[in-house]
Amino acid sequence: MRSGVKTAIVGGVFLVVAGGVGYGGLNLYNGITGGDTSTKTNSGSAPKTGPVTGDEVTTTAKDFLAAWAAGEPEKAGQLTNDPVSAGPAVAAYRDGASISEAVITPGTPVGAKVPFTVKATITYKDVSKPWSYTSELTVVRGQTTGRPLVKWAPSVLHPKLLTAEASVRTGVAKTASVKAVDRNGKELTAEKYPSLRPVLATLRERYGAKAGGATGVETWIESGSESVPDTPLLVLAKGKPGTLKTTIDAGVQAAAEKAVKAFGKASVAAIEPSTGAIRAVANNPATEFNTAFQGAQAPGSTMKIVTAAMMMQNGLATPDSKVECPPDVVSRSSTFENLDRFSIPNGTLTESFRRSCNTAFIKAIKPLSSKGIADTALGDTARDSFGIGKTWAVGVPAADGSVPESAGSETPASYIGQGKITMSALNVASLSATVKNGGFLQPYLVAKELDDREFAEADRLSSSVASGLQRMMRETATATDGTAFRAMSGLARPKGAKTGSAEVDGQGKSNSWFTGYSGDLAAAAVVEEGGHGGDAAGPVVARVLKAG
Questions:
Q1: pLDDT of the residue at 33
Q2: CB atoms closer than 10 angstroms to residue 467
Q3: How far apart are CA 380 and CA 386, in angstroms?
Q4: Helix, strand, or coil (residue 512)
Q5: How large is the average pLDDT for residues 462-476?
Q6: Strand 217-222 vs strand 113-124: parallel, antiparallel, or unpaired?
Protein backbone atom coordinates (compact mmCIF):
# COMPACT_ATOMS: atom_id res chain seq x y z
CA MET A 1 0.00 0.00 0.00
CA ARG A 2 3.04 2.30 0.13
CA SER A 3 6.20 1.99 -1.93
CA GLY A 4 9.18 0.85 0.10
CA VAL A 5 7.12 -1.22 2.53
CA LYS A 6 8.51 -4.73 2.97
CA THR A 7 6.22 -7.53 1.85
CA ALA A 8 8.37 -10.58 2.37
CA ILE A 9 7.04 -13.36 4.55
CA VAL A 10 9.71 -12.78 7.16
CA GLY A 11 9.35 -9.31 8.61
CA GLY A 12 6.48 -8.70 6.22
CA VAL A 13 4.41 -5.61 6.74
CA PHE A 14 1.46 -6.04 4.41
CA LEU A 15 0.44 -9.51 3.25
CA VAL A 16 -2.34 -11.15 1.30
CA VAL A 17 -3.38 -14.46 2.78
CA ALA A 18 -5.27 -16.55 0.26
CA GLY A 19 -8.01 -18.80 1.47
CA GLY A 20 -11.39 -20.08 0.50
CA VAL A 21 -12.68 -22.12 -2.40
CA GLY A 22 -11.06 -21.30 -5.71
CA TYR A 23 -7.63 -20.37 -4.40
CA GLY A 24 -6.10 -23.79 -4.92
CA GLY A 25 -5.24 -24.27 -1.27
CA LEU A 26 -2.58 -21.56 -1.43
CA ASN A 27 -1.61 -20.56 2.11
CA LEU A 28 0.19 -17.30 1.42
CA TYR A 29 0.11 -15.15 -1.66
CA ASN A 30 2.68 -12.41 -2.00
CA GLY A 31 2.78 -11.16 -5.57
CA ILE A 32 1.04 -10.89 -8.90
CA THR A 33 -0.04 -14.26 -10.27
CA GLY A 34 0.52 -13.50 -13.90
CA GLY A 35 -2.87 -15.09 -14.57
CA ASP A 36 -4.59 -14.91 -17.92
CA THR A 37 -5.61 -11.33 -18.66
CA SER A 38 -5.72 -11.82 -22.39
CA THR A 39 -8.20 -9.53 -24.12
CA LYS A 40 -8.82 -11.80 -27.11
CA THR A 41 -10.44 -15.10 -27.86
CA ASN A 42 -8.47 -18.18 -28.90
CA SER A 43 -8.71 -17.06 -32.52
CA GLY A 44 -7.17 -13.71 -31.60
CA SER A 45 -9.90 -11.87 -33.46
CA ALA A 46 -11.83 -9.95 -30.86
CA PRO A 47 -11.98 -9.05 -27.15
CA LYS A 48 -13.67 -11.55 -24.87
CA THR A 49 -17.34 -11.00 -24.11
CA GLY A 50 -19.95 -12.40 -21.78
CA PRO A 51 -19.96 -12.82 -18.00
CA VAL A 52 -16.66 -13.26 -16.19
CA THR A 53 -15.74 -16.85 -15.36
CA GLY A 54 -14.98 -18.26 -11.94
CA ASP A 55 -11.27 -18.51 -12.75
CA GLU A 56 -11.22 -14.90 -13.94
CA VAL A 57 -12.88 -13.74 -10.73
CA THR A 58 -10.39 -15.66 -8.58
CA THR A 59 -7.30 -14.56 -10.49
CA THR A 60 -8.30 -10.90 -10.84
CA ALA A 61 -9.21 -10.57 -7.16
CA LYS A 62 -5.89 -12.15 -6.09
CA ASP A 63 -3.91 -9.91 -8.43
CA PHE A 64 -5.62 -6.74 -7.25
CA LEU A 65 -5.27 -7.54 -3.55
CA ALA A 66 -1.64 -8.53 -4.03
CA ALA A 67 -0.82 -5.28 -5.82
CA TRP A 68 -2.59 -3.32 -3.10
CA ALA A 69 -0.66 -5.23 -0.43
CA ALA A 70 2.68 -4.88 -2.22
CA GLY A 71 2.50 -1.10 -2.25
CA GLU A 72 1.97 -0.94 -6.00
CA PRO A 73 -1.04 1.37 -6.39
CA GLU A 74 -0.55 1.96 -10.11
CA LYS A 75 -0.59 -1.77 -10.79
CA ALA A 76 -3.64 -2.17 -8.55
CA GLY A 77 -5.36 0.65 -10.41
CA GLN A 78 -4.66 -0.97 -13.79
CA LEU A 79 -6.49 -4.05 -12.55
CA THR A 80 -9.69 -1.99 -12.14
CA ASN A 81 -12.11 -0.50 -14.63
CA ASP A 82 -11.21 3.02 -13.44
CA PRO A 83 -7.41 3.20 -13.06
CA VAL A 84 -7.37 7.01 -13.02
CA SER A 85 -9.40 7.05 -9.78
CA ALA A 86 -8.33 3.75 -8.23
CA GLY A 87 -4.55 4.15 -8.37
CA PRO A 88 -4.34 7.41 -6.40
CA ALA A 89 -7.00 6.20 -3.96
CA VAL A 90 -5.05 3.03 -3.16
CA ALA A 91 -1.86 5.08 -2.76
CA ALA A 92 -3.49 7.55 -0.37
CA TYR A 93 -5.31 5.00 1.75
CA ARG A 94 -2.41 3.63 3.75
CA ASP A 95 -0.78 6.95 4.52
CA GLY A 96 -4.07 8.59 5.42
CA ALA A 97 -5.03 5.81 7.82
CA SER A 98 -1.45 5.41 9.18
CA ILE A 99 -1.51 1.64 8.68
CA SER A 100 1.78 0.11 9.83
CA GLU A 101 0.96 -3.51 9.02
CA ALA A 102 -1.97 -5.53 7.76
CA VAL A 103 -3.05 -8.89 6.40
CA ILE A 104 -5.73 -9.28 3.72
CA THR A 105 -7.62 -12.56 3.74
CA PRO A 106 -9.90 -13.26 0.75
CA GLY A 107 -13.05 -15.22 1.38
CA THR A 108 -14.98 -17.58 -0.85
CA PRO A 109 -16.12 -15.96 -4.12
CA VAL A 110 -19.87 -15.70 -4.60
CA GLY A 111 -20.44 -15.29 -8.30
CA ALA A 112 -18.46 -12.24 -9.36
CA LYS A 113 -18.11 -10.94 -5.77
CA VAL A 114 -15.13 -11.71 -3.54
CA PRO A 115 -15.35 -10.80 0.18
CA PHE A 116 -12.15 -10.18 2.09
CA THR A 117 -11.01 -9.30 5.60
CA VAL A 118 -8.39 -6.71 6.48
CA LYS A 119 -6.65 -7.10 9.84
CA ALA A 120 -4.40 -4.11 10.35
CA THR A 121 -2.39 -2.21 12.93
CA ILE A 122 -2.72 1.54 12.97
CA THR A 123 0.20 3.48 14.41
CA TYR A 124 0.18 7.19 15.09
CA LYS A 125 3.35 8.51 16.70
CA ASP A 126 3.81 6.24 19.73
CA VAL A 127 0.25 4.88 19.80
CA SER A 128 -0.73 1.63 18.05
CA LYS A 129 -3.93 -0.36 17.97
CA PRO A 130 -5.31 -3.30 15.96
CA TRP A 131 -8.08 -2.63 13.46
CA SER A 132 -10.08 -5.09 11.42
CA TYR A 133 -12.96 -4.89 8.99
CA THR A 134 -14.49 -6.71 6.03
CA SER A 135 -15.16 -5.48 2.53
CA GLU A 136 -15.75 -6.97 -0.88
CA LEU A 137 -14.90 -6.43 -4.51
CA THR A 138 -16.71 -7.31 -7.72
CA VAL A 139 -15.07 -8.47 -10.94
CA VAL A 140 -16.54 -7.29 -14.23
CA ARG A 141 -15.50 -7.51 -17.86
CA GLY A 142 -13.97 -4.37 -19.33
CA GLN A 143 -16.30 -2.81 -21.85
CA THR A 144 -13.60 -2.06 -24.43
CA THR A 145 -10.78 -4.46 -23.57
CA GLY A 146 -12.78 -7.51 -22.55
CA ARG A 147 -10.37 -8.03 -19.64
CA PRO A 148 -11.67 -9.14 -16.23
CA LEU A 149 -11.27 -6.13 -13.94
CA VAL A 150 -12.21 -5.08 -10.42
CA LYS A 151 -15.24 -2.80 -10.53
CA TRP A 152 -13.85 0.27 -8.84
CA ALA A 153 -15.57 2.05 -5.99
CA PRO A 154 -13.99 3.67 -2.91
CA SER A 155 -15.95 1.16 -0.80
CA VAL A 156 -13.61 -1.57 -2.03
CA LEU A 157 -10.98 -0.12 0.31
CA HIS A 158 -13.46 0.32 3.16
CA PRO A 159 -17.25 -0.24 3.06
CA LYS A 160 -17.95 3.16 4.59
CA LEU A 161 -16.00 5.05 1.93
CA LEU A 162 -19.07 5.92 -0.09
CA THR A 163 -17.86 8.81 -2.25
CA ALA A 164 -14.70 9.76 -4.11
CA GLU A 165 -14.33 12.79 -1.82
CA ALA A 166 -14.28 10.69 1.36
CA SER A 167 -11.00 9.50 2.86
CA VAL A 168 -9.71 7.63 5.91
CA ARG A 169 -7.62 9.67 8.34
CA THR A 170 -5.78 8.97 11.59
CA GLY A 171 -4.64 11.71 13.94
CA VAL A 172 -5.70 13.94 16.76
CA ALA A 173 -9.48 14.13 16.54
CA LYS A 174 -10.97 17.33 15.18
CA THR A 175 -13.30 17.59 18.13
CA ALA A 176 -13.62 15.94 21.49
CA SER A 177 -15.94 12.98 21.78
CA VAL A 178 -19.21 13.61 23.54
CA LYS A 179 -21.26 11.65 25.99
CA ALA A 180 -24.75 12.38 24.71
CA VAL A 181 -27.44 11.96 27.34
CA ASP A 182 -31.21 12.01 27.21
CA ARG A 183 -33.50 14.50 28.94
CA ASN A 184 -32.97 12.69 32.27
CA GLY A 185 -29.20 12.25 31.99
CA LYS A 186 -29.20 8.66 30.67
CA GLU A 187 -26.38 7.98 28.21
CA LEU A 188 -27.32 7.47 24.57
CA THR A 189 -25.08 5.19 22.51
CA ALA A 190 -25.25 3.98 18.93
CA GLU A 191 -24.81 0.42 20.16
CA LYS A 192 -28.01 0.57 22.21
CA TYR A 193 -29.92 2.92 19.90
CA PRO A 194 -28.68 2.23 16.33
CA SER A 195 -30.89 4.90 14.74
CA LEU A 196 -29.01 7.57 16.69
CA ARG A 197 -25.64 6.78 15.04
CA PRO A 198 -25.77 9.61 12.44
CA VAL A 199 -27.33 11.93 15.02
CA LEU A 200 -24.57 11.32 17.56
CA ALA A 201 -21.88 11.77 14.90
CA THR A 202 -23.32 15.15 13.95
CA LEU A 203 -23.73 16.24 17.57
CA ARG A 204 -20.09 15.49 18.21
CA GLU A 205 -18.95 17.37 15.12
CA ARG A 206 -21.09 20.41 15.82
CA TYR A 207 -20.96 20.60 19.60
CA GLY A 208 -17.94 18.59 20.76
CA ALA A 209 -15.92 21.74 21.30
CA LYS A 210 -18.76 23.28 23.32
CA ALA A 211 -19.32 20.27 25.57
CA GLY A 212 -16.11 20.67 27.57
CA GLY A 213 -14.21 17.55 26.51
CA ALA A 214 -10.60 16.95 25.40
CA THR A 215 -9.57 15.42 22.07
CA GLY A 216 -7.95 12.00 21.66
CA VAL A 217 -6.29 10.08 18.79
CA GLU A 218 -8.69 8.42 16.37
CA THR A 219 -9.17 6.96 12.92
CA TRP A 220 -12.16 8.33 11.06
CA ILE A 221 -13.72 8.69 7.64
CA GLU A 222 -13.54 12.29 6.52
CA SER A 223 -16.66 12.81 4.43
CA GLY A 224 -15.32 15.68 2.32
CA SER A 225 -18.70 17.40 2.61
CA GLU A 226 -19.82 20.05 5.08
CA SER A 227 -23.33 18.57 5.12
CA VAL A 228 -22.19 15.01 5.98
CA PRO A 229 -20.58 14.35 9.38
CA ASP A 230 -17.30 12.46 9.67
CA THR A 231 -17.60 8.82 10.78
CA PRO A 232 -15.40 7.59 13.66
CA LEU A 233 -13.86 4.15 13.02
CA LEU A 234 -11.33 3.50 15.80
CA VAL A 235 -10.21 5.16 19.02
CA LEU A 236 -6.45 4.77 19.56
CA ALA A 237 -6.20 6.99 22.62
CA LYS A 238 -9.26 8.23 24.44
CA GLY A 239 -9.75 11.88 25.08
CA LYS A 240 -12.08 13.21 27.71
CA PRO A 241 -15.66 13.25 26.41
CA GLY A 242 -17.84 16.21 27.17
CA THR A 243 -21.44 15.73 28.26
CA LEU A 244 -24.11 16.94 25.87
CA LYS A 245 -27.75 16.95 26.91
CA THR A 246 -30.36 16.20 24.25
CA THR A 247 -34.14 16.24 24.29
CA ILE A 248 -34.39 12.49 23.58
CA ASP A 249 -36.34 10.35 26.04
CA ALA A 250 -34.51 7.02 26.32
CA GLY A 251 -37.72 5.09 27.03
CA VAL A 252 -39.54 6.53 24.03
CA GLN A 253 -36.42 6.05 21.89
CA ALA A 254 -36.24 2.37 22.85
CA ALA A 255 -39.89 1.90 21.92
CA ALA A 256 -39.33 3.64 18.59
CA GLU A 257 -36.34 1.43 17.76
CA LYS A 258 -38.42 -1.70 18.41
CA ALA A 259 -41.47 -0.41 16.55
CA VAL A 260 -39.75 0.25 13.21
CA LYS A 261 -38.06 -3.17 13.21
CA ALA A 262 -41.42 -4.79 12.47
CA PHE A 263 -41.17 -3.51 8.89
CA GLY A 264 -38.59 -3.59 6.11
CA LYS A 265 -38.33 0.18 5.65
CA ALA A 266 -39.87 2.41 8.28
CA SER A 267 -39.21 5.70 10.06
CA VAL A 268 -40.74 7.42 13.06
CA ALA A 269 -40.25 10.67 14.97
CA ALA A 270 -41.82 11.89 18.21
CA ILE A 271 -42.19 15.46 19.53
CA GLU A 272 -43.44 17.05 22.75
CA PRO A 273 -46.15 19.50 21.53
CA SER A 274 -45.88 21.89 24.48
CA THR A 275 -42.16 22.57 23.87
CA GLY A 276 -41.15 21.25 20.43
CA ALA A 277 -38.58 18.95 22.07
CA ILE A 278 -37.83 15.85 19.98
CA ARG A 279 -38.29 12.73 22.12
CA ALA A 280 -37.37 9.98 19.64
CA VAL A 281 -36.19 9.25 16.13
CA ALA A 282 -35.84 5.77 14.63
CA ASN A 283 -35.27 4.19 11.24
CA ASN A 284 -35.19 0.67 9.87
CA PRO A 285 -32.76 -0.01 8.40
CA ALA A 286 -30.59 2.17 10.62
CA THR A 287 -28.07 3.71 8.22
CA GLU A 288 -25.93 6.84 8.03
CA PHE A 289 -28.90 8.61 6.39
CA ASN A 290 -31.48 9.70 8.94
CA THR A 291 -34.65 9.18 6.90
CA ALA A 292 -36.98 10.21 9.74
CA PHE A 293 -35.43 13.70 9.70
CA GLN A 294 -34.10 14.00 6.16
CA GLY A 295 -36.62 12.06 4.10
CA ALA A 296 -38.58 13.83 1.39
CA GLN A 297 -41.68 11.80 0.58
CA ALA A 298 -45.29 12.54 -0.34
CA PRO A 299 -47.21 12.54 2.97
CA GLY A 300 -50.53 11.34 1.55
CA SER A 301 -53.72 12.09 3.46
CA THR A 302 -51.90 13.27 6.58
CA MET A 303 -51.71 16.50 4.54
CA LYS A 304 -55.47 16.88 5.04
CA ILE A 305 -54.60 18.40 8.43
CA VAL A 306 -53.15 21.37 6.57
CA THR A 307 -55.83 21.31 3.87
CA ALA A 308 -58.60 21.39 6.49
CA ALA A 309 -56.89 24.33 8.19
CA MET A 310 -56.66 26.14 4.83
CA MET A 311 -60.37 25.53 4.19
CA MET A 312 -61.35 26.93 7.58
CA GLN A 313 -58.98 29.91 7.31
CA ASN A 314 -60.38 30.83 3.88
CA GLY A 315 -64.04 30.45 4.84
CA LEU A 316 -64.63 27.39 2.65
CA ALA A 317 -65.91 25.13 5.41
CA THR A 318 -66.20 24.50 9.13
CA PRO A 319 -66.14 21.10 10.85
CA ASP A 320 -69.95 20.97 10.63
CA SER A 321 -70.25 22.18 7.03
CA LYS A 322 -71.88 19.85 4.55
CA VAL A 323 -69.34 18.79 1.92
CA GLU A 324 -69.86 16.43 -0.96
CA CYS A 325 -67.95 13.14 -0.85
CA PRO A 326 -68.71 11.32 -4.12
CA PRO A 327 -66.85 8.16 -5.22
CA ASP A 328 -64.79 10.19 -7.69
CA VAL A 329 -64.31 13.75 -8.84
CA VAL A 330 -62.81 15.41 -11.92
CA SER A 331 -60.61 18.41 -11.17
CA ARG A 332 -58.27 20.21 -13.56
CA SER A 333 -58.90 17.49 -16.18
CA SER A 334 -57.82 14.69 -13.83
CA THR A 335 -59.96 12.12 -12.02
CA PHE A 336 -59.47 11.44 -8.32
CA GLU A 337 -61.11 8.56 -6.43
CA ASN A 338 -61.74 7.41 -2.89
CA LEU A 339 -60.43 4.10 -1.63
CA ASP A 340 -62.76 1.41 -2.98
CA ARG A 341 -64.83 4.31 -4.42
CA PHE A 342 -66.73 4.85 -1.17
CA SER A 343 -68.98 7.88 -0.71
CA ILE A 344 -70.54 9.75 2.23
CA PRO A 345 -74.06 10.98 1.41
CA ASN A 346 -74.92 14.33 3.03
CA GLY A 347 -71.74 14.24 5.12
CA THR A 348 -69.82 16.95 6.96
CA LEU A 349 -66.18 18.01 6.74
CA THR A 350 -65.54 16.19 10.02
CA GLU A 351 -66.96 12.94 8.64
CA SER A 352 -64.88 13.28 5.48
CA PHE A 353 -61.78 13.93 7.58
CA ARG A 354 -62.20 10.99 9.92
CA ARG A 355 -62.93 8.59 7.03
CA SER A 356 -60.28 10.21 4.81
CA CYS A 357 -62.48 11.11 1.85
CA ASN A 358 -60.24 12.34 -0.95
CA THR A 359 -62.97 13.77 -3.13
CA ALA A 360 -64.38 16.04 -0.41
CA PHE A 361 -61.04 17.78 0.00
CA ILE A 362 -60.88 18.41 -3.73
CA LYS A 363 -64.49 19.12 -4.74
CA ALA A 364 -65.07 21.71 -1.99
CA ILE A 365 -62.08 23.82 -3.08
CA LYS A 366 -62.62 25.98 -6.14
CA PRO A 367 -59.79 27.75 -7.99
CA LEU A 368 -59.46 31.52 -7.80
CA SER A 369 -60.84 31.85 -11.33
CA SER A 370 -64.09 30.34 -10.04
CA LYS A 371 -64.28 32.69 -7.04
CA GLY A 372 -62.32 30.23 -4.95
CA ILE A 373 -58.78 30.43 -3.59
CA ALA A 374 -55.35 30.79 -5.18
CA ASP A 375 -53.20 27.79 -5.96
CA THR A 376 -50.70 29.18 -3.44
CA ALA A 377 -53.13 29.00 -0.52
CA LEU A 378 -52.08 25.54 0.67
CA GLY A 379 -48.41 26.52 0.71
CA ASP A 380 -49.25 29.73 2.55
CA THR A 381 -51.10 27.81 5.28
CA ALA A 382 -48.36 25.20 5.52
CA ARG A 383 -45.69 27.87 5.96
CA ASP A 384 -47.51 30.50 8.00
CA SER A 385 -49.43 28.20 10.34
CA PHE A 386 -47.38 24.97 10.45
CA GLY A 387 -43.82 26.15 9.73
CA ILE A 388 -43.51 23.79 6.75
CA GLY A 389 -41.18 25.36 4.20
CA LYS A 390 -39.40 27.56 6.71
CA THR A 391 -35.81 26.84 7.73
CA TRP A 392 -35.71 24.61 10.79
CA ALA A 393 -32.67 24.72 13.10
CA VAL A 394 -33.09 21.32 14.75
CA GLY A 395 -29.43 20.88 15.74
CA VAL A 396 -28.74 18.12 13.20
CA PRO A 397 -29.53 17.89 9.47
CA ALA A 398 -33.28 17.83 8.80
CA ALA A 399 -35.48 18.50 5.79
CA ASP A 400 -37.82 21.45 6.23
CA GLY A 401 -40.72 20.04 4.22
CA SER A 402 -41.91 21.51 0.95
CA VAL A 403 -45.33 22.62 -0.32
CA PRO A 404 -44.34 24.36 -3.55
CA GLU A 405 -46.56 26.39 -5.83
CA SER A 406 -48.50 24.10 -8.13
CA ALA A 407 -50.50 24.26 -11.34
CA GLY A 408 -53.00 22.12 -13.20
CA SER A 409 -53.85 18.75 -11.69
CA GLU A 410 -50.96 19.05 -9.23
CA THR A 411 -53.03 21.51 -7.21
CA PRO A 412 -55.92 19.18 -6.32
CA ALA A 413 -53.40 16.36 -5.87
CA SER A 414 -51.59 18.49 -3.29
CA TYR A 415 -54.77 18.82 -1.21
CA ILE A 416 -54.54 15.07 -0.49
CA GLY A 417 -50.76 15.00 0.00
CA GLN A 418 -49.62 14.02 -3.48
CA GLY A 419 -48.21 16.13 -6.32
CA LYS A 420 -44.93 17.86 -5.49
CA ILE A 421 -45.36 17.94 -1.70
CA THR A 422 -42.56 16.29 0.28
CA MET A 423 -42.18 15.77 4.01
CA SER A 424 -40.29 13.68 6.53
CA ALA A 425 -41.68 11.82 9.52
CA LEU A 426 -40.45 14.72 11.67
CA ASN A 427 -42.38 17.24 9.54
CA VAL A 428 -45.59 15.21 9.78
CA ALA A 429 -45.15 14.66 13.54
CA SER A 430 -44.94 18.43 13.81
CA LEU A 431 -48.35 18.75 12.12
CA SER A 432 -49.94 16.79 14.98
CA ALA A 433 -47.88 18.65 17.57
CA THR A 434 -49.04 21.99 16.14
CA VAL A 435 -52.69 20.94 16.34
CA LYS A 436 -52.33 19.66 19.89
CA ASN A 437 -50.50 22.80 21.03
CA GLY A 438 -52.65 25.23 19.07
CA GLY A 439 -49.57 26.65 17.39
CA PHE A 440 -46.27 25.70 15.79
CA LEU A 441 -43.14 25.26 17.89
CA GLN A 442 -40.10 24.30 15.86
CA PRO A 443 -38.84 20.82 16.77
CA TYR A 444 -35.35 20.73 18.26
CA LEU A 445 -32.88 18.16 19.55
CA VAL A 446 -30.44 20.33 21.54
CA ALA A 447 -30.95 23.68 23.20
CA LYS A 448 -30.58 26.66 20.88
CA GLU A 449 -28.43 28.37 23.49
CA LEU A 450 -25.56 26.03 22.55
CA ASP A 451 -24.98 27.92 19.32
CA ASP A 452 -27.56 30.71 19.30
CA ARG A 453 -29.57 29.12 16.50
CA GLU A 454 -32.65 30.98 15.35
CA PHE A 455 -35.76 28.84 15.52
CA ALA A 456 -38.38 29.04 12.78
CA GLU A 457 -41.61 30.69 13.86
CA ALA A 458 -45.20 30.65 12.60
CA ASP A 459 -48.49 32.28 13.53
CA ARG A 460 -50.59 30.54 16.16
CA LEU A 461 -53.72 28.88 14.90
CA SER A 462 -56.89 30.81 15.64
CA SER A 463 -58.93 29.30 18.43
CA SER A 464 -61.66 28.21 15.99
CA VAL A 465 -59.21 26.53 13.60
CA ALA A 466 -57.27 24.87 16.44
CA SER A 467 -60.43 23.53 18.11
CA GLY A 468 -61.80 22.40 14.75
CA LEU A 469 -58.67 20.43 13.89
CA GLN A 470 -58.52 18.94 17.38
CA ARG A 471 -62.14 17.82 17.05
CA MET A 472 -61.57 16.23 13.64
CA MET A 473 -58.41 14.44 14.75
CA ARG A 474 -60.11 13.30 17.97
CA GLU A 475 -63.00 11.77 16.06
CA THR A 476 -60.60 10.07 13.63
CA ALA A 477 -58.98 8.41 16.66
CA THR A 478 -62.09 7.66 18.72
CA ALA A 479 -65.07 7.14 16.41
CA THR A 480 -65.56 3.52 15.46
CA ASP A 481 -65.60 4.44 11.75
CA GLY A 482 -62.50 6.61 12.10
CA THR A 483 -59.53 5.40 10.08
CA ALA A 484 -57.26 5.67 13.16
CA PHE A 485 -59.64 4.06 15.67
CA ARG A 486 -58.00 0.65 15.83
CA ALA A 487 -54.42 1.93 16.09
CA MET A 488 -55.26 4.56 18.74
CA SER A 489 -57.43 2.28 20.87
CA GLY A 490 -56.27 2.20 24.47
CA LEU A 491 -54.20 5.39 24.30
CA ALA A 492 -54.77 8.12 26.85
CA ARG A 493 -56.81 11.23 26.08
CA PRO A 494 -56.57 13.87 24.86
CA LYS A 495 -55.75 12.10 21.65
CA GLY A 496 -56.12 12.63 17.93
CA ALA A 497 -54.78 11.17 14.71
CA LYS A 498 -54.79 11.19 10.93
CA THR A 499 -54.00 8.34 8.56
CA GLY A 500 -52.55 8.54 5.09
CA SER A 501 -51.36 6.51 2.16
CA ALA A 502 -49.20 7.92 -0.62
CA GLU A 503 -48.86 6.46 -4.08
CA VAL A 504 -45.30 6.26 -5.39
CA ASP A 505 -44.40 5.60 -9.01
CA GLY A 506 -42.99 2.13 -9.49
CA GLN A 507 -44.29 0.73 -6.21
CA GLY A 508 -46.85 -2.03 -6.02
CA LYS A 509 -48.29 -0.71 -2.75
CA SER A 510 -48.60 2.81 -1.40
CA ASN A 511 -46.51 4.15 1.47
CA SER A 512 -48.31 3.97 4.81
CA TRP A 513 -48.43 7.20 6.86
CA PHE A 514 -49.85 7.88 10.31
CA THR A 515 -49.61 10.79 12.69
CA GLY A 516 -51.22 11.35 16.07
CA TYR A 517 -50.90 12.58 19.63
CA SER A 518 -51.73 11.30 23.09
CA GLY A 519 -51.23 13.48 26.13
CA ASP A 520 -48.18 15.65 25.56
CA LEU A 521 -46.53 13.48 22.90
CA ALA A 522 -47.03 13.56 19.14
CA ALA A 523 -45.52 11.21 16.58
CA ALA A 524 -45.59 10.29 12.91
CA ALA A 525 -44.39 7.26 11.01
CA VAL A 526 -44.01 6.18 7.41
CA VAL A 527 -43.70 2.57 6.29
CA GLU A 528 -42.61 2.15 2.68
CA GLU A 529 -45.06 0.01 0.71
CA GLY A 530 -47.04 -0.48 3.93
CA GLY A 531 -50.43 0.19 2.33
CA HIS A 532 -53.18 1.77 4.44
CA GLY A 533 -52.04 4.21 7.11
CA GLY A 534 -53.76 2.47 9.98
CA ASP A 535 -52.40 -0.96 9.07
CA ALA A 536 -48.63 -0.40 9.17
CA ALA A 537 -47.62 3.10 10.28
CA GLY A 538 -50.46 3.24 12.82
CA PRO A 539 -49.08 0.51 15.11
CA VAL A 540 -45.63 2.11 14.96
CA VAL A 541 -46.97 5.46 16.17
CA ALA A 542 -49.18 3.82 18.80
CA ARG A 543 -46.25 1.93 20.28
CA VAL A 544 -44.23 5.13 20.54
CA LEU A 545 -47.09 7.13 22.07
CA LYS A 546 -47.71 4.42 24.66
CA ALA A 547 -44.09 4.79 25.83
CA GLY A 548 -44.49 8.52 26.43
A1: 38
A2: 14
A3: 9
A4: strand
A5: 98
A6: unpaired
